[in-house]
Fold this sequence. Notes:
The chain is of the alpha/beta class. It folds into 2 domains: about 5-370, Alkaline Phosphatase, subunit A; about 380-444, 2-Layer Sandwich (Arylsulfatase, C-terminal domain). It is about 30% helix and about 20% strand. It contains 13 helices and 19 strands. It has helices at about 30-40, 55-60, 80, 90-95, 130-140, 160-175, 195-200, 230, 245-275, 305-310, 335-345, 360, 425-444, and strands at about 5-15, 40-45, 45, 100-105, 115-120, 145-150, 180-185, 195, 280-290, 295, 300, 310, 315, 325, 330, 370-375, 380-385, 385-395, 395-405. The strands form 5 sheets. The chain has an 8-stranded mixed beta sheet with strand order 5-4-7-1-9-13-2-14, sandwiched between helices. Strands 16-17-18-19 form a 4-stranded antiparallel beta sheet, covered by helices on one side. It has a 3-stranded mixed beta sheet with strand order 12-3-15. Helix 1 packs across helix 9. The radius of gyration is 21 Å and the shape is globular.
Amino acid sequence: MISAKKNVLFLMMDDLRPELSVYGHSQISSPNIDALAKSGVTFKRAYCNVPVCGASRASILTGIRPTANRFLKFNASIKNETPNILTLVRHFKNQGYTTISNNKITHLKRDINEWDEEWYPSLKGWRDYQSKENIHLEKKGQHGYAYENPDIDDDAYYDGKTANKSILDLKRLKAEGKPFFMAVGFVKPHLPFNAPKKYWDLYKESEITLPKNNSFSNSAPEIANHSWGELRYYKGIPKKGQVSDTVAKKLIHGYYAAVSYVDAQVGKVLKELKNLGLKDNTVIVLVGDHGWSLMEHGLWVKHSNFRVALQVPLIISASNISKDRHTNSIAELVDLYPTLCELANISIPTHLDGESLIEALQAPSKVFKNTALARWQKGETLIADNLFYTEWQRNDNTIARMLYDHNTDSDENRNLAIEASFRGTVDSLSIILNNRLKKHQNEK
């Protein structure tokens, strides 16, 4: 490791699952993120610790895990729930870094008040509609659609404005010459799936297919199901029951277009970083705050303990780590705080729950970590190698379980927890999970 402090460019997307070419999804057009992957390490098995935006971001920025009493909901607050914690932002600032937050990094604006600068685009409505139809519906007090594809420039939407602001910041930071930590929070592909027409035109709706497991499995416990209320707000989405196949394909089309749109904004920022000669001394992290369901298990949005809600894209690039490599070593988002400290050559605080991923970055062919923990509401998930185990407890009694073996069932269609032949495996994983939870609680 070199001794000079490295800059950090932290790129976070909202609701971005690993639906990218670099993760094997050839239908997706994500050339800029794919190019970033060639300059660093892609984590094939990265997971959020809680699948909802506010809580996940609070966990990342504090370096501590969500619990039954902390970081539970979309509006989780660092300021209110962990007021005395040394945040990632404060720690870098204490080390002499200029710290900038552009757009959505914390879910709640001004939640930590520790950035040198915290910027948001001027909001005319958080859904950022640009099409005349959606704007008209909202003016009438009605709900707009869950998507739009107007023939407009990238800069019309908030993410385009965020990219432009970040480019201006890079130029200023270059001139100032101080180390910087700049976090860029892109909103897409969060609902509504708004993207300029040219990104919708990258995909043919006739070629979009629904997932094979597009209904809730009889073997999964009902407590794992949910009503995906976040989507039901929008016009054309039924208040109960599944959407039609036509609407489902339109939603998937919109999600794909939004991914390609945000990929283009990432590309603009990365191009400027390189043009300014800053790339070699900058650690770049690209990550999603949690996963997202596109009708798998008959579900939409996040808010579940299934893999599609927990798995996230994670790409880390730096001059002193491997290039164009993938790793199957597990990563949790709570690991980002210590990893960034080590890559930037600053001290690692003692309160952190995560562990540095530096070994996987330097030797990606090896597996250095094979477990992860996640939770949603009362469901606690243990990821142990290829096994995904979840249990729900009430009054200290386990009321439901799920177990999936990703070696044979990566789509999680066969719940092994209800099969007698896997009782021993379930009991062993339950002991490991509860010991991990108790240990964590005792340390706090």
